[in-house]
Amino acid sequence: MSGTARVLAAASLLFGLAACGDSGGVGGQQAATQAPQKSSETVTLKYWTWFPPEATLKETISAFEQANPGIKVELREFEAADYQKQLPLALNGGEALDVVGVQVSAMTNTVKDQVRPVAEWESQLGADWRAKLNETMVGQTEKIAKDGKLYSLPMGSIGSAIMYSNATLLGKLGTPFPKTAADLETVVAKAKKELPDVQPIVFSGEPWWQEEMLFTIAGQTAPTLSDDVFSGQKPWNSPEMVSALTAYKSLFDKNTVAKSVLSLKGNRPAELFGSGKALFLVDGSWQSSMLSDAYRKANKISLTDVGAGPFPVIAPGGQPAARGLAEGGLAIPKSSAHVTEAARFIQFMTMGDGVAIWSKDLVLVPSLKGFEVDPSVLTTPAAKEGYAAVQAVISAGGSARDSNQAFLNQVEGNAILDVLRRQATPEKAADKLQKEWSSGRYDTK
Description:
Layout: H1 3-16, E1 43-49, H2 54-67, E2 71-77, H3 80-92, E3 99-102, H4 104-111, H5 129-132, H6 135-143, E4 153-160, E5 162-166, H7 167-173, H8 181-194, E6 199-202, H9 207-219, H10 225-230, H11 239-253, H12 268-274, E7 278-283, H13 293-298, E8 306-310, E9 323-331, H14 339-350, H15 354-358, E10 365-366, H16 381-395, H17 405-420, H18 426-437
Parallel strand pairs: 1-2, 1-3, 6-7
Antiparallel strand pairs: 3-9, 4-9, 4-10, 5-7, 5-8
Helix pairs in contact: 3-4, 9-11, 9-17, 11-18, 17-18
């Protein structure tokens, strides 16, 4: 596997599991300066997580320890899949942990009985802590728990679908980043003529990604459709769903997106884009690391400039949209004997100076309101404007990036593909989806 594929595969693994996204130049509200620990006895916090990368975390932890000389943080980091197995075992076995990372969608209900509700330690965060964090991200973290309680504070969110551009090639074409279907048609037509060896648009043709594309397009005119369908408030064959299927299909009918895209799997789309063989990549916000020139050089990605933004608005009168999902929750286990110190560390990571450090990887859009990425990370106008656009569309709050995995894998993804391949009309596909959804074969509660 090439360097590009290897790096992008790691990014996909990091947050693909969730699908089953201050100071030093940081804008907006800042957490109060954290006073050094007054006790002469050093407290050591045991911190388990899977994210961010260890090098990033060590830098962040070092800054926390300098600001809090009475507290040390002992880090243990796992691979994402292994972490989902090891953390519940450790908590149920009585392991004395103080701070744990929680994959919000995948792990909250697995570990909630072994961690303290935030209500038990929120007094350590300051009375206005909720005002400092994005309401949608906190709300999603709270809602995901079966009892409706908040068990962790989200570091940020991931979202999709996001479109990334080879900004260098886009500049050669003399066209701006497309914002509408008409813009996209114009850019693609020009690219086919002037860049015959470059694929205009690539994304995964796998069934799971079709849901991301469909609900992104649906969200442009019906922002809550994904939530409404999965909660049973609207049927799968609602007019809004038929309209979204029709709009998505139009991209293939007009040959704006080539049907050959549907044969792409795994990391192939990202690899094509990273090697300069595609003008646009449509993927999740976890690919935003590519906006960083330092990241591209370190990982041998042969692009000189990358831009980004919401997927172009397909339906007339629509607005940019993306499904987002809170991720990177931080929780305090019941086994912790250092709740005050653990809460201080979580505050540093979600509302304090730590955000500016760990966020440099650009994988999560931080939950801290008013956050602005360190200006040294993004060095071109395309990258700066791109990240700001991604941050804005994910922070705005639309439907949650959540799925019914069994239904998606067995019915939904292939039903969408049938429409794109003209093997079923949008109406028939929508009726099939509703019939299967209400069949009782899937847990739709």
